[in-house]
Design a protein that fits this description.
Layout (H helix, E strand, L loop, with lengths): L2 H9 L17 H10 L4 H15 L7 H4 L1
Helix pairs in contact: 1-3, 2-3
């Protein structure tokens, strides 16, 4: 993980699917879990979704709170 990826979770939108247009940090846990089971996309999007899954799964979403300010 790169530190700048945390900020990207707050600024990048999901580019497709049911939650298209929603910030990656706002994606629901069940959707992130689906990607974890089915496979994350390649590239930066996949890395960011995997990071967000880890934050959600380990109840660490609050780590993003200081970056929201």
């Amino acid at each position: 993980m790169k530190p700048e990826h945390l900020q990207l979770l707050l600024t990048h939108d999901m580019p497709y699917g049911k939650y298209k247009g929603r910030k990656l940090a706002a994606l629901p846990g069940h959707y992130l879990g689906w990607f974890a089971r089915e496979g994350f996309p390649r590239g930066q999007l996949g890395e960011l979704l995997a990071l967000m899954y880890e934050l959600d799964h380990n109840d660490l979403r609050s780590l993003l709170d200081p970056l929201r300010r």
